[in-house]
Specification:
The termini are far apart. The model has no long low-confidence stretch (mean pLDDT about 65). It is rod-shaped, with a radius of gyration of 27 Å. It is mainly alpha-helical.
Length: about 60
């Protein structure tokens, strides 16, 4: 029984390690995509904010 249990446990551990490593890879890919998307979004937001501030400062309607 002990031998059978050890074999069973070692196969479970191997399966779990494979499953965990595939999950980690998936999460890393997903996180890197999210970070890339967020960086792009932040850059676009910064550009929009700069354009808006230039428009507010140099808008002809404001000086009238």
């Amino acid at each position: 029984m002990v031998t059978t249990n050890q074999t069973h446990l070692s196969s479970m551990v191997t399966t779990n390690q494979t499953h965990l490593s595939s999950m980690v890879t998936t999460n890393q890919t997903h996180l890197s995509r999210m970070v890339t998307t967020n960086q792009t979004h932040i850059l676009l937001g910064t550009r929009v904010a700069k354009v808006r501030s230039v428009c507010t400062n140099n808008c002809p309607d404001r000086s009238v």
